[in-house]
Amino acid sequence: MRPVIGLTTGLVLGLVLVTVVAAESVTPGAVVFVEGAVERSLSGKPGNPEAGALIMDKGAGNCIACHQVTGLAHLQWHGEIGPSLDGVAERWSEAEIRGIVADAKVMFEGSMMPSFYRTEDFIRIGDAFTGKPLEGEVQPLLSAQQVEDVVAYLMTLRQE
Fold first, then answer.
1. Mean pLDDT in order along the chain per 10 residues (160 residues)
2. Per DSSP, which regions of 29-158 are E strands?
3. Are 126 and 40 in contact, with CB atoms under 8 Å apart?
4. Cα distances (angstroms) measured from residue 158 to each of 5, 56, 101
């Protein structure tokens, strides 16, 4: 009986270890861009499209300040600076969308779009527009999971 408990405990611990390693976030400085795309999830977890839609509003992401999104027509003040995001999931792959949300300047040199997952070599108007400091370090505008949530929402935007 004892070896079975040991084996079961070992299997459970092994699964927990694999889950923890798989769920590890990529820090802003360690993001790997390939031609502007980011293949690997930044949070190690899938995004939540419903949470992503909330971030698109006037919160942390504020995407609709520059972009129009028909699926968010109930929200006010859609901008016209950036392209409409309707059908974005048909124009770009998930990896490309992740790269654009993380740091659009990698794919589109000179883009006005903020670098949402970058912590150095950027220009921001002031501390109020930079993520909340954590232990004195500059934080990105969006967390790794928030980027994944926005990507998950954007992947639902297909032409009707």
1. 42 36 78 96 97 87 93 90 95 98 94 89 58 65 96 91
2. 131-134, 137-139
3. no
4. 50, 16, 17
